[in-house]
Amino acid sequence: MRRHFVAVAETTHDEFERILELARQPVPSNDLAGTRVSLVFERPSLRTRASSVAAVQDLGGNYSMFTDAEIGLDTREAAEDVARTLAQTSTIVAARVRDHQVFSRMRSATGDAVSYINLLSDQTHPTQATADVLTLADHFSDGDPLGLAGRTVTYVGDATNVTRSLATALIGFGVTVRIVAPVGYDLSSDQCAVIEARARYGGQLQCFTDPTAAVPGSDALYTDSWISMGLEHEAEERRRVFRGFQIDESLFDLAPTSVFLHCLPAHRGEEVSHDVMESPRSLVWQQVRHRTTAMYGVLRWLEEK
């Protein structure tokens, strides 16, 4: 039976730890020799596209790239038919999509012929979360994710797909995850339940509405854009609501030994200040490097015999 990586919550703890372990094995390699990967981008991408291409090539595989203009999921052609077509030439389909339900539809259409990787959907961003764990483990515990137990990571801003994936991944390694968001932009009770079900080693989920109450004692601060793709029509209202949720120098200094993370693209002057982005305590570019490392682990795990 073929494996899939469409959400951290859909892997077991052992499976996710194995992905992280495989991510750190030497490259280049021939682990993907003879493997064809279709990369489907319904949404724009820089880091995800660059890291996916690099990882496939470094592992000795072949790839084909398809954009929304070429495929038109559910506009030009039904997602099921796209999946059936790609299954004729590929064994892995890695897709960045608007609607998370596309993955279940594609899987139903292709059975056990293809493995799927979620490169971002409206619900989750599991490859980003994988890179985030690798980044934090490098900084705090010599690369051992289990060494993160007892740390506190605070996310400030809109509780997005990135937030949920980050929390789901970290709470399983004993991390206390604090989510600070305005009312109406926070996690739902159902989303909290999914995250909390993954808790191990004392990991906790804590929710706040005041950044100054949540940040002290944090080991890392994390944020994302206030205006995600597809929400541009809400830009003015979101800037008003999130005023006071920017990670600037004064907020950063409430946790003076903390590091800073951002999944990018960053909007300096909105969710983060320029000085925090460029601070020596910023791990943003290590995160970018680990986007490729994360893909090594995911691709190897899918093809592992």
Describe the 3D structure:
- It is a single chain.
- The protein folds into two domains: 8-125 and 291-303, 3-Layer(aba) Sandwich (Rossmann fold); 128-287, Rossmann fold (3-Layer(aba) Sandwich), CATH 3.40.50.
- The chain has 13 helices and nine strands.
- It has helices spanning 13-23, 47-58, 68-71, 79-86, 101-110, 126-141, 161-171, 189-196, 211-214, 235-241, 249-252, 274-277, 284-303; strands at residues 36-41, 62-67, 92-96, 115-120, 152-156, 176-180, 204-208, 220-223, 259-262.
- The strands form two sheets. The protein has a five-stranded parallel β-sheet. A four-stranded parallel β-sheet has the order 2-1-3-4.
- With 305 residues, it is an alpha/beta fold.
- Helix 5 (101-110) links the parallel strand 3 (92-96) and strand 4.
C-alpha termini separation = 11 Å
- String of helices and strands: HEHEHHEHEHEHEHEHEHHEHH
Shape: globular
Instruction: Write down the overall mean pLDDT.
Output: 97
Rg value: 19 Å
* Percent range of helical residues: 25-40%
Total domains, how many?
Answer: 2
